[in-house]
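Handoff note, outgoing to incoming analyst
You'll be picking up this chain. Sequence as last confirmed:
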Amino acid sequence: MPSPRTAALPSVSVVIPCRDDADLLEACLQSLAQQSVPPAEIVVVDNNSADASADVARRYGARVVFEPVPGIPAAAGAGYDAVAFGADAADLIIARCDADCVLPPDWIARIAENFTANPQLEVLSGPGVFYGMPPWAGRLLAGLYLGAYFLAMGSALARWPVFGSNMAMRAGTWQDISNEVHRDDAQMHDDVCLSFHLGPRRRCRLDRELVVGMAPRAVQTGASLSLRFRRAFHTLAGHWPQEYPWRRWEQRFRPVGDGQG
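Most recent structure output, in case you need it:
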């Protein structure tokens, strides 16, 4: 658990990539409006939506950033840029969720407390549960789905992967790697790509109590699951052979200061 608040919490800005998800986005923004600690800013990235997503975002006071390049990698990157390269980015935390997420009232507070309690922490992530079904089923399916994700990708990355529906990072961390990630490949999982470019040594944490609600679109059909598996393999292949798992594990446990490689 994060430590009790003994110091001022850092400011947290929220990035939400969105394409044609106006109704789900409204529920997400409603949950952000009910936070015990309000976000410093909400940035909704309109990824060329044909519906009223941008209007919904503005109605809730969000800043809308337009990104015409299709795909979550481009949209998420545009949102991170809008926050990390702004005038007030020093010591800022960038939180990220998806438009179909419903966030608990302490989501912002818990993120801020994690970074306050862990000054060396660069990236934070948490799990989710599926809503729109019996609670036991939502927990079970999400546990299986995310358990497989964290286990498989953690093995490939030599550390916990980022989960894009529920994550946060320091603005300075994004500034360091923003030119390295694959923004223009819509078939990549942006969170796995980000995890690769974080490298195996940056301080990342999985907070199992930082839980968000998620729409079950990823597991509703075999086609949805198949698409996600194909994108996972595509993302892995796009970073190999330079980032083969055994190379990352060797790098992670190589003594600091070892000049090899």
